[in-house]
Amino acid sequence: MSKREVSFTVNGAAHTVLVYPMERLLDVLRCELGLTGTKEGCGEGECGSCSVLMNGELVNSCLVPVLQAEGATIGTIEGLAGASGLHPVQQAFLKCGGAQCGICTPGMVMATVHLLGHTPAPTMEQVREGLGGNLCRCTGYTRIFDAVLEAAGRQK
Amino acid sequence: MRARPSEYELVAPGSLPAVLALLAGEPGSWMPIAGGTELMVQYGAGKLGARKLVSLWGLPELRSIESTGEEVLIGAGCTYTDLRNDAVVAREFPLLGRAASWTGSIANQNRGTLGGNIVNGSPAADSLPALMVYEAELLLASVRGTRRVAYVEFHTGYKQTRLAPDEIIRAIALRPQFAAYHAYSRKVGTRNAQAIAKLCLAGLAKTSGNQIEDVRLAIGSMAVTPVRLRRTEEILLGRPWGGALISEARQALETEVAPIDDIRSSALYRLHVAGNLLQEFLEGLFA
Amino acid sequence: MQTRVVGVSVPRKEGVAKLTGQARYIDDLSLPGMIFGATVRSSIARGAIEDIKFGEGIPWHEFTIVTAKDIPGRNVVALIVDDQPCLADGMVNHPEEPILLLAHPDRHALPAAVAAVEICYKPAPSIHSIEESERRELIIWGKDNMFKSYRMEKGDVDNAWKNAAWIVEGEYSTGAQEQLYIEPNGVIAQAGPTGGLTVWGSMQCPFYVHKALVALTGLPPESVRVIQAETGGAFGGKEEYPSMLAGHASLLAMKSGRPVKMIYDRMEDMAATTKRHPSRTRHRTAVSADGKLLAAEIDFATDGGAYATLSSTVLSRGTIHAGGPYLWPNIRVHAKAYATNTPPHGAFRGFGAPQSLFALERHMDVVAKAIGMAPDEFRRRNLLHQGMATATNQIIHDEIVLDQMLERALELTGYHAKVNQFAEHNLTSTHKKGIGMAAFLHGAGFTGSGERYLNALVGVEATAAGGVRVLVSSTEYGQGTNTILCQIAAETLGLEYDDISMAPVDTSTSPNSGPTVASRTAMIIGKIVQTAAMKMRQTLLDSGLLEPSAGREQFLAACQAYRKQFGELQSFSRYEAAPNIFWNDELYSGEAYGAYAWAVYVAEVTVDTSTYSVTIDDFVALQEIGKVIHPILAAGQIEGGVAQGIGYALYEKVVWKDGRMINNQMTNYIMPTAEDLPPIRVFFEEVPYQHGAYGAKGIGELPMDGPAPAIINAVVQATGINFTSIPLLPEDIFRAMTAEPERPAESLESALAAEGSQ
Q1: Which stretches in chain C have pLDDT values below 50?
Q2: How many domains does chain C have?
Q3: ∠ CA(C720), CA(C725), CA(C726), 5° rounding?
Q4: Residue C475 is part of which domain span?
Q5: pLDDT of residue C747
Q6: Which portions of chain B are predicted below pLDDT 50?
Q7: What ipTM, to 2 d.p.?
Q8: Which chain C residue lies closest to A103 (C-alpha atoms)?
C-alpha cells in the first residue's frame, strides 16, 4: 500500500504528513510530529492516556486512523500552555496535586478541558462522568476531582 | 500495536454514492469503518482480518437525525454523543439516549456510531436491546437502492447479519409511538464506566388498571444475538398483576435465553440477575 | 518542631514538565540508528524445547536474532537466588517465558515475525496451585517446590490452647493482582564501540538492573551504566522486572551494534510480567474468657510462580505482619512460598502484608462474632500499646495511638449508630448495608539488618548554577521522591525549596542509596539527605566561609566561594542504624523494622441484592505516620493506595488458564474508574520517629493493607455470609447468597471449628 498526504492542524499549526492511511493518529502525533506528550497506555481505547481534541471533541487517538483526521483541528497537551504561562486547568492540577506519575496526566487534562468547555460548572457526578474514560492508577482520582472543580471555579 | 499499517488500505470517497459504488464494484472486499471504536481495537491487537477499509466517518448523509412526522430517521453515522444531545431522541426514545450514555467513555461516545454498534453485532452492545423494544427498522443502502429490514430480524447468528456485501446501514427508523409507555433499561457491567455489559435489559410497557396492555422486552449478552423476549411478553399480556405472574414471567425468560460462562461473568449469574431485572421492571409498573 | 518547608504542600518538583507533556518517558526517547526489539515467548506452561523453526514469508536476514547461546556472561536475571534464566535454554517453566529475541529497524515488522517463530515443545506436566505444589506429587523446583519457608514463634503456643475459652479457625485466600501502571515496561539499550553498555528505562531500582546486567554480560561494573527515565507508575511492578527487559534489550544491542528500544504493549505486559503473590492463610486462634488473644497458629502460604525472584522477601514481610497490630502472648507462623508454573509473581505495594493482613483482619471479625463481642471492642482489648512486644518480640518504644484512632474512626463514621440502623434496614431492604473495619500496621524500610546491608549512600552538592542538588539512586515514579527530598534538603540547609534540585538517577554518577521500595524513601533516605546536608553545612562552617548565623543568601554565596576555591562542594552520608536494633534471622525475632506506621480504616458498603454488586458509600482512612512531609502528596499516597485496595477487594480478578492470564487487556481486567470510587476521607496523626527525616515514617505501602479486609468485613455484615476470599465479585456474592441450604459452607457458624472448654 502507498502512503498519502494527510493535512490537519495541530495546536494551531498546519501540518501535512506523508503517511499510511491506517496509521494511528496517536503514532503520527508522536513519531511524525514529535509531539510525545500524548501517551499510549493500552492501545484499546480504555485508558484515555491518548486523549486529544479533534474538532473540539475528546477522542482516543489510538483508535483514530490518521486519514480520518484529514482537515481536522487537533489539540494536544502541548498546545495548552500559552505565552503567558500554564493553562488554568494545568495550574489547578499543579496546585491540587492532580498529577503523580504523570503518564495519565496529558489525557486527563485534555478530558478536563473538554468537560469544562462543554459544562463550565459541572457537578461532581458530571466530573466523574467526564473523566470516566481516563484511568489513573496513582491518585484514586480524589485530587484530580479537586483540580477539575478548582479549574471550574477559577474559570467563572 | 500489533498491526502493520503498510498492509492496510483505507479510502475516504467522501460521499455515500461513492462509497456504495466502491462496495458494488468489489463486493466483500471493502470493510466500512465509521468511528473505529471497534475495528481499531481489533486492528491494534493484530486481529483485524480485513485489509481494505472504506471510511464512512463524517459522511453528511449518514450523520443526521430527521423527523418525518411518521418516523424519526437516525443516520447510521450518528455518534453516541449525537444521540445523547438530540432532543427528539431524548423525548421519544429515552432508552436509546440512556444506552448511548452507557457506552464506553466520553471519548468513545464521540466516535462510536449507532450503525457501527449494530453492524458489529456484539450481543453485549448497549443500544441493541433499546432498538429492539422500539421495533426499529433498518434502512440498508446499496447501488441497487434502499431496502428496509426489521431490526429484530437483522442478526442471524453470533456477529452475523443480513447485510449484503455491497450494503451499508444508512439509517435507523423509529416510530415515535411510545409516549404513553413506561420505559425501563438497566445494564449490569463489571464497573460503572467503560464496561462491557454482563447483561442489559430494556423494557417498554403500557398498563391499564392492573394489567399489562402492551409490553416489549429485549435483552443483551444472554445469547449469541440480542433477544426479543416474545414468550415472556406473551405471558404478561392481559394477565392480572401479582406474584404468580412475576414468577411465570421469570420462568419464561429462562426458556428464551442461552447465557454462557465467559471471561466477564457466569451463565447462572446472568440468568438469575436477568430475572431480577425483569422483576424490577414489572414491580416498577405497578408501584 | 516547627518546620518551614517540610510540612508544606509545595508544587511537585517535576510537576510542570508532567502537566505540559514535556516529561520524557522511555517511549518518548529516541537514539540515532535505533532499532526495535520484541520477545518470542513460551506458549506452554512447562516442557522441553525440541526445535525452533523460522517460518516462511519473513525476511529473516533483516532481523537480529538472540537466543540463550548469545549470552556472554551468565544466563540469569541476577536477584537473590539466581534461578531465573534471562532466556529459556532447553526448558520452559511458565507460559510467556522468554525464549528468543528479535530486533528490526521497523517496529511494525516485529509482531508478524514473532508470530512466525515456531517453537516445538515436548510438554511436561505442570502445577497451577498452592495445593498442587505442596502435595509434591510433582516436583517442579528444587527438591520440594518450596522457594522459602519461615517459622516465626513467640511464647509457648502449644500450651496455650488449654486455657482458651474459645478456639476459632478460619481459612482465607487472596488472588493475584496486576500492578497496572498506566505506562507499560520499556527500555532502550545501547552498546558502545569500546565495550560499554548504557540502558535507559522505566524502573524503580537502577542498581538492581546494573547488577543484573553485569552478571548477564560479564562486563566490568564500570562499563555498565543504567539511567532511569521518567517513570509512569510502578507500585513494585518495576522493582525487579526491568532487569529482565534491560537484559533482553542489551543482548540485542550488543549483537546488532545498534541501540535497541523495547516497549511492551499492554497485552504483553499483563501476561508476561510479575503480579502480586496469591496467598492462602489458615488461622487457629485461642481467646480467653474476657476476649483477650491468647495464642495463634498461622499457616501462611504464597504462590511464587515458576522462579524464586522476590518470593522469599515477600514471604518474610507477610510473615512478620501476620499478627497485625495486636498483642499476642503466644504466636507461631509457618510460612511457605511455593513454586507453580506461572510467570513469577513479584513485588507489589505491600509486598506480602496485604495478603496476611487481609486474613488476620477478616479473622478478627470472625472471632469477634464467635465470642459474641463487637468487632471494635474485640480489637480495642487487644491492640498493642507503647512498651508492648510485637509478634517478633520487638518492643515498641514510641507511643502508639491506635486506641485514639479507633475512637476517632468510630466517631467519623458514626459506626455504632450505623450498625444498629443497618441491622434494621437490612430486614426489609433489597439494598443491604454494612460497615466494617480493619486495624493494621506497616513496617518501613528493609527488614531486620536489611538496611545495614544496603548501607545506603546519599550526597548533596552545590551546583555551578548556584543551587544545591541531591544525589541519590532513589527514583520518582509519582509518589513524590523528588519533591520531599528537596523539601528536606531545603529545610536542613535553611534554603528555599526552589534552590534544591535532584540530580538525574544514573548509576555512573548517583551514589547507591538502595532501591526505591519498602516504604523507605521518606524515612530512611530522607534522614540521610538530612545528615548529608548537615555535613555540607559543617564543611562550610569549618572552612570559615560561612558564619553560624548566616541566612540563605550567605549560604549560597559560601557554596560558590567554596567551589571557586576547592573545585567542588559535595557531602556524603551513609545509613546509620539506630542503636539497639537486633534481628535474629534464624528465630525470626527481634526488631524487624525501625518504625511502624499504624492505621484504622472503615468502609461503609451497600450490596444490591438484585445485581449482587457492592458499592462503597464512604471510606475513612486514619493513619499515624510520624511526620507529614507534604500534606497533599501524603494524602495522595493514601487515596491512591486505597483505590488499589478497593480494586484488590472487589474488581481485580486475574483469570488464569493453564498458568496464563487470559484477561490481559484493560477491557477485561477491571480496575476502578472515576465513576467507581467513593470519596476517600484521609486523616493523619503524627508521633515523630526520632530516626526518620523530621520524624517521618514510611507511608507508601500502608494504605494497601487495610481496604480489602475493611470492605469485606462490611460486606459480611451486610449479607450475613462469611466471605473469606478476594477478589469478591458479584458472581461470588450471588453464588453464596443463593446457595442451597444443604451447603452451609458459606455460613458464619460453620467457620467455627470448636469451642474450647473453660
Answers
A1: 742-758
A2: 3
A3: 110
A4: 15-23+449-574
A5: 38
A6: none
A7: 0.98
A8: C232
